[in-house]
Here is the input.
Amino acid sequence: MTVPEFQRQKSKGKKLVVVTAYDALFARIVEQSGIEAILVGDSLGVVVQGNSDTLSVTMDDMVYHTRLVAGAREKALVIADMPFMSYQVSVEDAVRNAGRLIQSGAGAVKLEGGVAMLDRVQALTRVGIPVMGHIGMTPQSVNQYGGYRVQGREEAQAEGLLADARALEAGGAFSLVLEAIPAPLAKAITEAVSIPTIGIGAGPDCDGQVLVLYDLLGLFDEFSPKFVKPYAHLKADALQALRRFKEEVECQKFPSDLESYQ
Ligand code: KIV
Here is the structure.
């Protein structure tokens, strides 16, 4: 999957499917599923590092995880998140840090923000780095929102998001993540731009959908927004396996002859 192919899916009316991955093992499983785009999300700050938000994720963290995922990549487009403070201070920071992610194997980067980030998007596009925008509820602004809250419910806010989407498209973004906004607004944005929109908590009318892998697999259950649908229950399976292992070691059922060298 290349950036132009990813974009063409919109005109073909084919839904795009994106999931996050943070290491080679899961990246390979995602590839085997046929899913063609992997986001190395800064959500790793929550689901891998155990923090309550994404704000402490560093460029070094993102470079490390991008290398792991990109190293396992076969066909998928690998998109790496630009972490908090890697692009907010200056256009120069944005270009240098996005460049590090590309040098670590990403095929594109994602950054949060609308019109305010337009100069970053333009600068990255100018140097040949494809940028996915991310608007709506942008987790790096959690402190400004006072929590993870649906955005764009009021008319002025909704108009602002529509303007953000149009500006990012004009600035060269190849795609847009729409997070936690009302479904009718996501539909309006999707119709207003020619680049694919990828929804997460943005209803069914986006051009594609993204979920955090550990949410989708039922591995992470510390908090679960309304938009998450677990397609498996791997945490429950893991707990069952670990309890059985403990029990069998304690009652000397494991290892048996089968697992022993004679
Ligand atoms: O970091 C992430 O995983 C994301 C997705 C939730 C879109 O930004």
Q: What stands out?
A: The chain has eleven helices and eight strands.
